[in-house]
Structure prediction request, 73 residues.
Amino acid sequence: MSTLLEIEAAAEALPAEQKEELVRFLTARLRPSVPQPRKARLVREGNDVFLEAPPGAPPMTTENVKRLLEDWP
Prediction:
């Protein structure tokens, strides 16, 4: 693939899961101008508290959660 049009066509032909993986791959290679925290953080919204993943973290899909739990002690 040598042109942007060819790359775009190839990316468009990918299944949704592989498109998401490609986006994570490309995003990880972009260097932000402002350093971003690489740790998860707690976010409060009203009475709720959420754990927010850092930029570039993999999505918490069923498959990823199962994989994480397999390695749990």
Observations:
- Residues 43 and 49 are 6 Å apart (CA to CA).
- DSSP finds three helices and two strands in the chain.
- The longest helix spans residues 16-29.
